[in-house]
Design the sequence.
């Protein structure tokens, strides 16, 4: 018998044993015995040479509901001739963002198109962050922790015409994978 055949046979037997153990666990008790050739056998029925196997409980992960997508907030400011539908489309409320450099991609949705003299402004943690170009931009250098975002339409005088709802995201500064040895002092 070749080495490859032995490995394949061992893998098949291990898979079969795991399947029998899982099935028996779902139904009740698991027993372990050996046949005449010394092969291990798992079964859900007892025999004279079988010993009881204590199977630990399976690992489970509780179901976590995804955060609800935010609904566009009502207009604030002087929206009397504007009537914009303004929302932050990405990131979504409650999202955790992983980035080694603290980069956050933000996309906005505004409908209808901006009137002449109106522009978009993005607030990061209550302070103006940047002017989005065509409804999207990337914020860089954000520290770890929670951050709030809000979009605004402003007129030529800097007055707020419309505001979106706020979106809170959690920034995690992830480290890239190190290649090569790590020095230990």
Sequence:
């Amino acid at each position: 018998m070749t080495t490859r055949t032995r490995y394949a046979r061992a893998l098949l037997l291990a898979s079969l044993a795991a399947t029998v153990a899982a099935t028996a666990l779902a139904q009740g008790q698991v027993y372990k015995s050996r046949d005449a050739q010394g092969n291990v056998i798992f079964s859900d029925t007892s025999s004279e040479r079988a010993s009881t196997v204590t199977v630990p409980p399976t690992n489970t992960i509780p179901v976590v509901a995804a955060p609800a997508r935010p609904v566009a907030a009502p207009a604030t400011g002087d929206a009397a001739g504007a009537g914009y539908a303004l929302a932050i489309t990405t990131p979504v409320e409650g999202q955790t963002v992983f980035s080694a450099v603290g980069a956050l991609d933000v996309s906005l949705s505004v409908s209808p198109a901006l009137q002449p003299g109106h522009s978009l402004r993005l607030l990061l943690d209550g302070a103006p962050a940047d002017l989005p170009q065509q409804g999207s931009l990337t914020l860089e250098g954000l520290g770890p922790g929670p951050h709030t975002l809000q979009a605004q339409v402003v007129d030529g005088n800097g007055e707020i015409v419309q505001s979106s709802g706020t979106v809170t995201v959690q920034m995690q500064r992830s480290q890239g994978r190190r290649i090569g040895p790590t020095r230990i002092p």
Remarks:
- Helices lie at 3-27.
